[in-house]
Amino acid sequence: MKESIAQQHIICEDWNRELRFFKDDIAILRKRLDEVAAKNTSMDIMKEVEHFENKFKILDIHMDELLHDVQMKMDNLNSQAAAQVKYINVKMNDAEMRLDDLMHTTSKDFQETKNNYYKFLSKVM
């Protein structure tokens, strides 16, 4: 799909906001998980707590990497725009769909993890 540099830049800004929202949400979910861990000592519950601690940590690291990749893409787009006088209408062939796929997968994984986490919370609270 061909998109202009301006369109790709807007998409990257949306990804940036989405990833930052997810990271903020993970911080909130971790606080609630700490409360559950403090109130429960059951081995089964602690296994679930550890599972979600690890999952949140992995998601957080992955999102940091994606934020870096999105920033690199935005920097690249800015360089291309500066090199072209009428950059808004220049069509780009985005052969690199990797970032788009990663964003979709990350968003889906985050939502699934959050849903599973809420199911866990409903059991222990």
Describe this structure in words.
By secondary structure, this protein is mainly α. Helices cover 82% and strands 5% of the residues. The chain is built from three helices and two strands, in the order E-H-H-E-H. Strands 1-2 form a two-stranded antiparallel ribbon. Helix 1 runs antiparallel to helix 2. It is elongated. The N and C termini lie far apart (48 Å).
Topology:
Blueprint: E1 2-4, H1 5-39, H2 43-83, E2 91-93, H3 98-124
Antiparallel strand pairs: 1-2
Total DSSP E strands? 2
Helix segment tally: 3
Task: Please indicate the percent range of residues in DSSP E strands (runs of 2 or more).
Answer: under 5%
Low-confidence stretches: none
Question: Which strand order spans the largest sheet, edge to edge or round the barrel?
Answer: 1-2
> How much helix, percentage-wise, in residues?
over 70%
Please state the average pLDDT score.
87
Structural class estimated from helices and strands = mainly alpha
Tell me the quaternary state.
single chain
| Largest pleated sheet | 2 strands, antiparallel
Q: What is the rounded distance between the termini? A: 48 Å
Element-level helix/strand string: EHHEH
Give a brief outline of the structure:
Helix content is 82%, strand content 5%. The protein is mainly α and 125 residues long.
List the main descriptive attributes of the protein structure presented here.
125 residues; mainly alpha; two-stranded antiparallel ribbon; 2 strands; 5% strand; elongated
